[in-house]
Amino acid sequence: LIMDISSKKDIHVLISSHILPDIESTCSHVVILSEGKTAAQGSISELKKIKYNLYEIRTYGDDKGFIKKLEEMGCKVEQVEDKIIKIYMPPDNSHLELFKLAVEQDVQIRHFVKSQTSLEDLFAKAVGAE
Question: Alpha carbon of 7 to those of 11, 21, 26, 43, 97: distances in Å?
Fold first, then answer.
């Protein structure tokens, strides 16, 4: 209904929601607030333009040293679940460096996938959420 009103009647609709997947599928533009201040705003497609490469990996072994080395390399690391890690890597770094670091830190990478940036990822990055 919201998309129908917005597109057919050329009416702009303001939605406030914490259900980010619904916002991403419904809206073309967003404003992300953090503590009452604008943290990011613009079209979702512009905000999603690659400012980093996002990888999701599953590790085996003690990954504390591995995570520390990734952070020293300029990556933001988010522990999703036990042994599942999201890595926000600067675009000038190669994903091959992940494997090299893993070998150096005696950590096995059991799952590796390059992910697409979601609105939830943008929100977490904009508000500095861990």
Answer: 7, 20, 11, 16, 45
pLDDT of residue 45: 84
Query: What CATH number corresponds to the domain at position 88?
Result: 3.30.70.600
Convert the pLDDT of each residue in 99-130 to its tens digit: 999 999 999 999 999 987 778 877 877 776 54
123: Cβ contacts below 8 Å, ≥ 6 apart: 20, 32, 129
pLDDT digits (tens, 9 = 90+) for 7-21: 666 777 788 888 888
- Tell me if 93 is assigned to some domain: yes
Mean pLDDT of all residues in 51-77 = 92
Asked if residue 121 is part of any domain, the answer here is no
Measured distance CA(23)–CA(12) in Å, rounded: 14
**Judgement on whether residues 60 and 33 belong to the same structural domain of the protein:** no
| 123 found inside a domain | no
Whole-model pTM above 0.85?
no
Domain tally for the chain?
2
Residue 62 lies in a domain: yes
Q: Residue 55: which H helix or E strand, with range?
A: strand 53-60
